[in-house]
Design goal:
alpha/beta; TIM Barrel; 8-stranded parallel beta barrel; 8 strands; globular; binds dihydroflavine-adenine dinucleotide
Length: 308
């Protein structure tokens, strides 16, 4: 119920406008967001790289309202890729199609993302673009989009998809994506979806995650297992050992600011670890979804604010 409450709050425009402009909001968001500008994201990336953790940088934002906003967000990704390349950082990028204008002009979104993928393909070493998965109205479009981009000359292996274990359809989506050897990030899913299309019970989501995770791990394609769920991570490790899957054949992924202890432990034990580093001024929906996953965070943050 609390999760639903926070997901609803994440969609509240008025609260969002207020929060994103207030200095209190900005200081609160630092728990999960690297900062507001590219230099903040790059500084965090460098620090994580120094501790053996690779990164995916996300320029926060979704559902832009006009073509100029979409072009601006693509330009920021260009600048991030420049910085990654120039500074030799171990990082790729994650983006949302609605941030690239999917709602207003599909062709524009296609051109902008294709430009970024081409740029990654030309980098040495090659870069990588992960297309995040948004709410269910976008699932099919996003997967079609990734498949189409992946088929373009030179793009194979440079663009990847995200599959959400809470959706009933995900088993089929995994099979389709694997038939084209497309890299997948597996997550549980962060949006509010109906019981008609998604498992309502957490235990079923977790079971589906483990089932799909094993399919991915045996596929011979390099995938990302995105979760902070320690029990699932232990199952992945045991499966890798029993199936003789090497530790560099896949990676664990976590969000910036969440379970830093576990991130470090996994690196220390020789497992691949990538952290999702979001930055930008439009942090509100992302931040609210994180509170929804663990409402105790709201109390934790409030307590820290009072201590300051
Ligand atoms: P679960 O929610 O069951 O949590 C397991 C444990 O992890 C908790 O008991 C707690 O200890 C810890 N934990 C989880 N969330 C926490 C939080 N916010 N604060 C503190 N502790 C927390 N979703 C999506 O729909 N589309 C996408 O593209 C992505 N992309 C993505 C990338 C990466 C790298 C990650 C890690 C996650 C995503 N997600 C996502 C979000 C994902 O779908 C999911 O909502 C969260 O990861 C929380 O689910 P867990 O798998 O961590 O398990």
């Amino acid at each position: 119920m609390l999760r639903t409450f926070f997901v609803r709050l994440s969609e509240n425009r008025r609260l969002r406008n207020f929060a994103e402009r207030s200095s209190l909001g900005q200081s609160v968001s630092h728990r999960f967001v690297a900062g507001t500008g590219i230099p903040d994201a790059i500084a965090v990336t460098r620090t994580l790289n120094q501790s053996g953790i690779s990164v995916t940088v996300d320029n926060l934002g979704e559902n832009v309202h006009n073509a100029d906003e979409a072009r601006l967000s693509a330009r920021l990704y260009d600048e991030i890729l420049d910085a990654i390349h120039a500074q030799g950082l171990n990082a790729n990028v994650s983006l949302k199609l609605t941030h690239m204008g999917l709602d207003i002009d599909e062709q524009l979104a296609r051109d902008l993302v294709s430009g970024l993928v081409s740029r990654c393909a030309a980098m040495n070493p090659r870069g990588f673009v992960r297309v995040d998965m948004e709410g269910s109205p976008y699932t099919q479009k996003t997967l079609d989009f990734v498949r189409e981009l992946h088929r373009r000359p030179g793009h194979s292996g440079v663009v990847g998809a995200v599959v959400q274990a809470y959706l009933y359809r995900s088993e089929n989506d995994v099979a389709d994506l694997l038939s084209e050897r497309i890299r997948i990030r597996l997550c549980k899913g962060a949006y509010k979806e109906s019981a008609e299309i998604a498992f309502p019970a957490k235990a079923d989501v977790d079971a589906n995650y483990v089932k799909l995770m094993k399919v991915l791990m045996k596929s011979g394609v390099y995938h990302g297992l995105a979760t902070h769920d320690e029990a699932i991570i232990r199952q992945a490790q045991a499966f890798a050992t029993s199936e003789k899957i090497s530790r560099d054949a896949f990676e664990f992924q976590m969000l910036y600011g969440i379970r830093r202890d576990l991130q470090q432990q996994l690196v220390k034990d020789g497992w691949g670890m990538r952290v999702y580093v979001p930055f930008g001024t439009e942090w509100y929906p992302y931040f609210m979804r994180r509170l929804g996953e663990r409402p105790a965070n709201a109390i934790f943050i409030a307590r820290n604010m009072l201590r300051k």
